[in-house]
Amino acid sequence: MIDKNKIHDWWKEQNKERKRVLYVSVIIVPVGVVVVVVSVVGILLFLSTPPTVVVEPQKLDVSLSPGNSTVKTISIEAIGTGMGEREVRLSAAGPIVSWLKFSKNNEDFEDSITVDVDKTPYIIVNLSLQSNITPGDYRGAIEVYHSGGRVEIPVFVKIEG
After folding, report:
1. In sequence order, what DSSP letters do the residues of 22-58 get, joined into one string?
2. Is the preceding omega at residue 57 within 30 degrees of 0, hence cis?
3. Cβ atoms of residues 95 and 139 within 8 Å
4. Is the pTM higher than 0.70?
5. What one-character DSSP code corresponds to residue 84?
6. Which end of the chain is more exposed for a tag (fewer CB within 10 A), N or C?
């Protein structure tokens, strides 16, 4: 589950950064138009700031035998008040690409998906191994792309033999 205290601390830090930008704007502007400029700058910052995407868990560790599968859940939350894009796209990277499939709202599993985090905060990840796979340790990632950047969830798969 998402740690609300971490999110609150992060949001306070982001607001400090915004206040610094507003303070700099106030210093450079003539005194007669300070209120208007500060309001406009504040509104522009509010509207242009893309939300930050927070995912949990921040890593996946899985142990499986060849031919078996497991299902994991990822929670996704958009934090921030900006009007930025609230959709994210998930895909797999690395040697685990063919083993991972994603599902939302009980739909069929897909290689990659795009979701609106306000409507689909949980993604089901199905990890399924072929029966002829070589035992060992494999590393990959689930990549979550959004308007504010990219979040990577490291995935460690131990295939028992």
Report:
1. HHHHHHHS-GGGHHHHHHHHHHHHHHHPPPEEEEESS
2. yes
3. yes
4. no
5. S
6. N
